[in-house]
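#struct-help
A.M.: can someone run this one for me? Single chain, 144 residues.
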Amino acid sequence: MLNGVPPILSPELMYAMMKMGHGDELVLADGNFPADANAQRIVRADGHGVVALLEAVLKFLPLDTFVEAPVAVMQPVGDDVAEPPIWSDFRRLTTAAAGRSIEFDCVERFEFYERARNAYAIVATGETAIYANVILKKGVVAPE
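D.P.: on it. Structure tokens below:
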């Protein structure tokens, strides 16, 4: 453990975020997502929810300001709800972290899987909410 680092962030996740460059993507995946089948690198966060993990990740990972939508979510399929309730938490947290309203890219399911396969890492969580998968595009860390 370290001062200032939320205990929900494992050493493996911090290492992955540190190694990511500008434009690399990180997937926070719910418990139903086929993370192992799609990951180049997998980080386990079993027992944790996506919202708590997203809040902690956004303390360290800047969102890309050079793209229109630095956040992507999976488009609901068929008769599922138009906008899953958990997305309001995603919007609240990303807006607070960026200090501005953040555009979300709503991506078709199989396109989302393809983006996940190309992501730097997938974080497999124990989240039970449906459509609680989110892709974050890393921005530039500004000099202090």
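A.M.: thanks! The CA atoms of residues 79 and 130 lie 13 Å apart.
D.P.: also worth noting: The mean pLDDT is 96.
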